[in-house]
Amino acid sequence: MTISNWWPLALLILIPVIILLYMLKQKAREYPFSSSMLWKEIYNNIEATKPWEKLKKNLLMFLQILTVLLLIFALMAPYLKQGGRRFDNVVIVIDTSASMGIQYNDDRTRLEEAINRACDYVDSLNETAQVTILTSNQEAGIVKTNVTDKADLRKALKALTVTDLSGDAGAAVSVVQSMVNQWEQYEVVFITDTPVELGNIEAQVINLYTDYDNLSMDYLSYGTEYDEAGNPSLTVIGKITNDAAEDVTTDVNLYGDDTLLMVQSVQVPAGGSQIVYFQQVNFGGKVLMAEINNQDDLIADNKAYAAMNSEGQKKVLLVTNDNMFLEKAIVNISWVDLYKTNQLSAVGMDEAYDLYIFDGMMPDALPEEGNIIYINPSTGNDIKVESAITNVNLEFLETEITKYVENFTFGVSVGKVFERPIWADSFLSSGAGCVGYYGETDGRRIAVLGFDLHYSDLALQAEFPILISNLMDYMMVSGMVSEDDYETGDKIVFNGNLNGSDMKVTAPDGEVTTLPAAVATNAYTDTGQAGVYKISQTVKEEEREEYFVVQFPIAEESHQDGTVSEEGMTVGEDEKNLSGGRDLRNLIVLLCLLALAVEWFVYVRQH
């Protein structure tokens, strides 16, 4: 046990004062009595002329002395240590990443549980402990620094909210390391739901991971189809993943600009995914949103969005002998005008296209402008085939053009492995071999796919139209927004008109950020909320608006594997009580009040 204040010992002077008060004689009172009693009390009358009397045992006096001693002890702020150490510098790191919004139990989320434990821990610290509070997700944030006021600390902790950002408590390790380097003794506590690599820091890690049941809306895309009369309608595709141990049947609501358009029921297998289709959707607005109509342990990932910006049709020339799979997938993209030919001589004529797709053909000369996709090409035009492959499984790697299909595998009977150029990234592999790559060189974007679609089962999978949609988005960038789809935490550079006004970005919560149009590299970084954003700019008195969506980080935050410890970590058990000791002041004050109550009871009985 330690004492925070020693000055209250000076109040011990009150104890002799109490004793002296009980040695003073009380003022005599007059009572009528028989004169014969005077002879019996003559000695006492002589003693009455003296101001002091002999100290007698008095229960009230002892109770008052005990009360004063208890008050003095309470003012000294005694503190019961645990583990034999007392820390004057304490750092608390709270993980506020999106997964902390998962239900911890029936009453609270993981973050709410973390806040409750942190508040209890603060209450258990000694009065002089200087506490620093940090939050952590993709980056560390400082909430309070070297604060001793416990009420202020509790208020700051209870004001914390879960974010839509990916990340964990590990982002704060380097910040904590720089802090503790200047202290001889310190206590660091991480409260999170994922493992943390601590490095050289001595710390407690309280892991709040719990098993959970969750459905996530992973993806939303759309395409346009036309009936026999030429009337357009949308086909909307979504992907749902089930992390529960049992199959789940749920309704999925499709909204267009906040209006309910359609409801589809879907059964999602345990531990698997399911594609949901909405066909013949009549909608010409700005934003589509699909929402899982099911209560689970993480509500934030139940929605996915798709922006429908119309910046003019893009012209695509498909050079092929016959590929209905590819043609069908491209036609479903609403902003693409597809032209088809089987003659290489059509390339380089007066007509210019935004994108050229060469399916099994290699032109002698490339057009001066326009991006290019090669499908099953031979060596030529800087493409080098290393070897042929047969009867193998191919896997999509994690890249920007394989979003929502990463790690998907499929089989091909005949294919090619390429020598990947230095400017390109691989997106499709067969073991260590590169079967597909993409990148930008000489001012144009190029993608290469190393097999004929007719010799694989990819075109029959639901992932095929998703891949084609991603490729089209990458190949044809236009408007103020380079892409329609981002993830929380992404930094976005807008393509504003230099002759226009400043650009204004409106976040889902209504907050408006102004960006100068003249600064082309001025990145927008306030993408911490999942939802629909709007960017606007006035050019020659014309108001231009585009929408883009920021998706919840499904892959990083919705599908945790339950790992609670790793080599090199110090992990606190979930059931372990987080405590810095026990402040005895409140207990002593209660004892003091009890002593006062006993004193009052004795006084009433005596009088």
Please describe the topology of this protein.
Layout (H helix, E strand, L loop, with lengths): L1 E2 L10 H10 L13 H4 L1 H6 L11 H17 L2 E3 L8 E7 L14 H15 L5 E7 L3 E8 L2 H9 L14 H8 L6 E6 L11 E4 L7 E12 L5 E11 L5 E9 L2 E10 L4 E9 L5 E7 L9 E5 L6 E6 L4 H8 L4 E6 L13 E5 L11 E5 L9 E12 L12 E10 L5 E7 L2 E9 L2 E6 L13 H13 L9 E3 L15 E4 L5 E4 L15 E9 L2 E10 L2 H4 L24 E2 L1 H22 L1
What can you tell me about this protein's structure?
The chain is an alpha/beta fold and 607 residues long. The chain is built from 11 helices and 29 strands. It has helices at residues 14-23, 37-40, 42-47, 59-75, 110-124, 150-158, 173-180, 324-331, 463-475, 554-557, 585-606, and strands spanning 2-3, 78-80, 89-95, 130-136, 140-147, 187-192, 204-207, 215-226, 232-242, 248-256, 259-268, 273-281, 287-293, 303-307, 314-319, 336-341, 355-359, 371-375, 385-396, 409-418, 424-430, 433-441, 444-449, 485-487, 503-506, 512-515, 531-539, 542-551, 582-583. Helix 5 (110-124) packs antiparallel against helix 6 (150-158).
Q: Indicate how many domains the architecture comprises.
A: 5
- The CATH superfamily of the largest domain is Class I glutamine amidotransferase (GATase) domain
Counting DSSP H or I runs of 4 or more residues, the number of helices is 11
Most strands sheet? 9 strands, mixed
| Average pLDDT rating | 82
Query: How large a portion of the residues is in β-strands, by DSSP E?
Result: 25-35%
CATH class group of the largest domain:
Alpha Beta
Looking at the structure, the CATH topology of the largest domain is Rossmann fold
Distance, first to last CA: 41 Å
CATH architecture of the largest domain: 3-Layer(aba) Sandwich
Uncertain ranges: 564-576
What's the Cα radius of gyration? 38 Å
Percentage of residues assigned to helices:
10-25%
Q: Structural class of the secondary elements?
A: alpha/beta
The strands making up the biggest β-sheet line up spatially as 16-15-17-18-23-22-21-19-20
